[in-house]
Design brief:
two-stranded antiparallel sheet, 11 helices, 35% helix
């Protein structure tokens, strides 16, 4: 990769990259989201998620984590304030077509909005709250999370576990070197979306600000593996972490630099493989 990245032009004030949000949501659901399956599995196994679990998923996106919990017998509710395209895919996953002979998941609820929007007088308290979108790779990516957890806590039983997720140490996250491309290309916007290394107590600080009581943690290997270079580029772009870079330069430049950053991780058979470690924290509702 070139040591110095030159911007083809500066972004216009207020300019935003044009994004096909439906296509990006599909790329997230079909390519990128599955990279976090080991994290979801580890959390659910540790907390013995199953029949009797009433789960509230914050930032549920396209719903893979909810689907996995529902397949274990849990009653699930997902909340997402800002990703209607992903939420539409979640509805498709969690409400199978009855005409095809599938049994609808009647317990699944999906709400575009805040935890308060998911509250209802006849809804029993949740036994588990999750916020499994990892934080710790972009400056400010935990902003608002403590307030979100604080608003969700009254909907859960006293002592119920609340699970947060974050990136592990950069030396154990191969993808961190690739994600830095976004910061370099978006140099004029670094003050708002710059790369930052994950800190050891990131998750604990978020939990404590939310008034939760930390009660254990764990680490999980979540390698990012892609069938080919095109899938790797599309998957990483679907995270939204490169949007500022596209706004600062253009899509062609971002695709080029991202592809160059991924080349060292491409195998002879064309697949792309990047080992990573993610961390989760279990906190409790007081």
């Amino acid at each position: 990769m070139t040591p110095t990245l030159v911007h083809s032009h500066l972004p216009r004030a207020g300019a935003r990259p044009r994004v096909d949000r439906c296509a990006r949501a599909r790329d997230w659901a079909e390519i990128q989201e599955r990279m976090l399956v080991p994290l979801y599995e580890a959390v659910y196994a540790r907390l013995d998620v199953g029949g009797g679990t009433r789960l509230l998923g914050l930032g549920c996106g396209s719903g893979l984590a909810l689907l996995m919990a529902a397949s274990r017998g849990a009653s699930v509710t997902g909340v997402d304030p800002s990703e209607p395209e992903r939420l539409a895919l979640a509805r498709g996953r969690l409400t199978p077509d009855a005409a095809a002979g599938a049994r609808p998941r009647e317990a699944a609820r999906l709400v575009q909005g805040t935890p308060g929007d998911a509250a209802a007088p006849d809804t029993p308290q949740y036994t588990l709250v999750t916020a499994l979108q990892p934080i710790g790779c972009v400056a400010g990516d935990s902003e608002g999370l403590s307030a979100l957890l604080e608003s969700a806590a009254p909907l859960a039983e006293r002592g119920a576990p609340v699970v947060l997720a974050g990136w592990g140490p950069p030396e154990r996250c191969t993808t961190s070197s690739v994600l830095r491309v976004a910061t370099k290309l978006a140099d004029p916007l670094r003050s708002t979306r710059s790369w930052r290394t994950a800190c050891r107590d990131d998750l604990e600080e978020v939990a404590q600000y939310a008034g939760l009581e930390p009660d254990g943690s764990g680490r999980v290997a979540c390698p990012f593996g892609y069938a080919d270079m095109d899938s790797a580029v599309r998957g990483l772009l679907s995270t939204g972490l490169f949007d500022a870079a596209v706004g600062a330069t253009d899509q062609v430049q971002v695709d080029k630099e991202l592809t160059e950053a991924l080349h060292p991780h491409q195998r002879r058979d064309g697949t792309v493989w990047m080992p990573n470690v993610f961390r989760y924290l279990i906190a409790r509702v007081p």
